[in-house]
Write a structure and sequence with these properties.
The structure holds two protein chains of two kinds. Chain A is α/β, with parallel strands linked by helices. Chain A has two domains: about 130 residues, Alpha-Beta Complex (Aspartate Aminotransferase, domain 1), CATH 3.90.1150.10; about 260 residues, 3-Layer(aba) Sandwich (Aspartate Aminotransferase, domain 2), CATH 3.40.640. Chain A has 14 helices and 17 strands. Chain A starts with 17 loop residues before the first helix and ends with a helix. In chain B, strand 2 and strand 3 form a beta hairpin. The interface between A and B is medium-sized, with 18 and 22 residues.
């Protein structure tokens, strides 16, 4: 049943100095219940490097001001730092222009923005929206809400037993008109890397617009929205070593220009009278109110951090640890991996005979090992695999082979307790 | 937090492995379903209630060890008690599992239920332990108000 995963980059040697890198993350150096912390909940949120924490502190200690309005020095500095962060995000995802980047609270808000603004303007009764069977609730519920407003139809691209998109079945969905496709780049629950470029190509051949939920991809894979064919791409800062409460929506400029405003307020307007309002240019039209300035600057620092490590060495190291985890955990008696995709990033999910995932999570926590137990906001995917929940170990750039060994020892301890 | 072995007492593991009073109860005149979305714990509780007395009780469902053991031990504890005693037992049990971790729990008069006192050190697991009891209370409320789903169906 289990298939050998294929590394995204096979022939490179892991040269990352992980022990030096770990020292840049203050939260990694702590004990939990007398055990050194093994943090394997990176798909929920990553820890933050000193560079990001310092960027937040520097902003608040030196540059704190509101942006886009003030004539004074601090406001000029804050505005510059905020817009520089936008340019960093723009380059990070391969956008053609920085104005294609809207700062939002995170992936969830980015998807809701598209569903509310683009969706309300473009989706009509009877239109079809395609999702996949592995979506996070945040890429399901906004479309259900749009369906309720418009009378659109949702169709679900089915999965294979390995937890990959069934591409033939996906292609067959386009025998009928499809207006919009929303899909995860990487599954948060089982780690599958979807063939986004191929899927977007199929969608575009049939005139559909494509949104990619990149929340679980951005920390692990180099992103190029133009090569992927993403018309919209959503990501969260806190899942890629940045602060919480900040994320970005990439939206192709012709789409963004045509979209109606989402929230009304300050900064999103050009002029206001009681008779009428003229809206600001993009992306500011979609950033009503004072944004998370510090968060955006911290987000930019996180991108700088990732690029200082470099995706080449980051990917080689992460895949080495991940492949090791798939082999080590997947070969344990009484443990079954949920999802066995050929191409995987960041995540392994598993269930244990006779042990509920929450009990496994509690016992592992007692060993200082932080994992996630539950449905991972992907209940339809859990239903597909016939499990109420899984235990998920998710990895970041700082995780090591030794930590996988700790996880395996922890799983064996769980089995001993519940034998 | 402490060693997980202190949470997973042998009595808990035993009831998890071999749940007591497990299965449907055809003569039940009162029942309720409980669901804990955090864990996915899902149980159905069946009771035979007559003259303010719980004559028989059983449960079905699946969930984590804390929830299944709590349901199993609860059904043993409830049988033969009055409704008032059942509610009082829930109140005492609730205090034991939700009390401050740094205080010793008062386990007087709750018998075997005392094995769940370690749950108070695991805030995210309290709902697992209390779900069967909330379900019991919902079943009794429904019974006393005459709106039990079972009664409506029959």
């Amino acid at each position: 049943m289990s298939r050998k995963p294929t590394s995204l980059q096979n022939n490179n040697v892991d040269t990352l100095d992980v022990s030096a890198l770990r020292r840049e993350f203050p939260a990694l150096v702590q004990e939990v219940d007398g055990h050194s912390l093994v943090y394997l909940d990176n798909a929920a949120t990553t820890q933050k490097p000193r560079a990001v924490i310092d960027a937040l502190r520097t902003y608040y200690e030196r540059d704190n001001a509101n942006i886009h309005r003030g004539v004074h020095a601090l406001s000029v500095r804050a505005t510059g730092a905020y817009e520089t962060a936008r340019e960093k995000v723009s380059r990070f995802v391969g956008a053609a222009h920085a104005r294609e980047i809207v700062f939002v609270r995170g992936t969830t808000e980015a998807i809701n923005l598209v569903a509310s603004s683009w969706g309300s303007a473009n989706i009509k009764s009877g239109d079809t929206i395609v999702l996949t069977g592995m979506e996070h609730h945040s890429n399901i519920v906004p479309w259900q809400m749009l369906r309720a407003r418009t009378g659109a139809t949702l169709r679900i691209a089915p999965l294979t037993s390995h937890g990959e998109i069934d591409l033939d079945a996906y292609r067959a969905l386009f025998q009928n008109p499809v207006k919009f496709v929303a899909l995860a780049h990487v599954s948060n629950a089982i780690g599958t890397v979807n063939p986004v470029a191929e899927m977007a190509g199929i969608a575009h051949d049939h005139g559909a617009i494509v949104l990619v939920d990149g929340a679980q991809a951005a920390a692990h894979l180099a992103i190029d929205v133009q090569k992927l064919g993403a018309d919209f791409y959503a990501l969260s800062g806190h899942k890629m070593y940045g602060p919480t409460g900040i994320g970005a929506l990439y939206a192709r400029s012709d789409l963004l220009e045509a979209m109606p405003p989402w929230q009304g307020g300050g900064d999103m307007i050009a002029s206001v009278t009681f008779a009428q309002t003229t809206y600001n240019v993009v992306p500011h039209r979609f950033e009503a109110g004072t944004p998370n300035i510090a968060g955006a600057i911290g987000f930019g620092a996180a991108i700088d951090y990732i690029q200082s490590v470099g995706f080449d060495s980051l990917t080689v190291h992460e895949q080495s640890v991940l492949d090791y985890a798939v082999d080590a955990v997947g070969s344990l008696d009484g443990v079954r991996l949920i999802g066995t995709p050929v191409t995987r990033a960041g995540v392994i999910s598993f269930v244990m005979d006779g042990v509920h995932p929450h009990d496994a999570g509690t016992v592992l926590d007692g060993e200082g090992i932080a994992v996630r137990a539950g449905h991972h906001c992907s209940q339809p995917l859990m239903d597909f695999f016939g499990v109420p929940a899984t235990t998920r170990a998710s990895f970041g750039v700082y995780n090591t082979h030794e930590e996988v060994d700790r996880l395996v020892a922890g799983i064996i301890r769980v089995q001993e307790l519940f034998h | 937090m402490s060693d997980a072995r202190e949470l997973y007492q042998e009595v808990i593991l035993d009831h998890h492995r071999r749940p007591r009073n497990f299965g449907p109860l055809p003569e039940a005149n009162c029942s309720s379903e409980g669901y804990n979305p955090l864990c996915g714990d899902r149980i159905t509780l069946y009771l035979v209630v007559a003259n303010d007395m719980i004559l028989d009780v059983s449960w079905e469902g699946s969930g984590c060890a804390i929830c299944t053991a709590s349901a199993s031990v609860m059904t043993e504890a409830l049988k033969g008690h009055t409704l008032a005693e059942a509610r009082d037992l829930f109140a005492r049990f609730h205090d034991v599992v939700t009390g401050p971790p740094d205080e010793n729990p008062n386990v007087d008069g709750i018998g075997k239920l005392a094995v769940f006192s370690g749950v108070r050190e695991y805030p995210v697991r309290i709902k697992c332990a209390t779900l069967p009891w909330h379900t019991m209370r919902a079943a009794l409320d429904g019974s006393e108000n005459g709106v039990s789903t079972e009664q409506e169906q029959s």
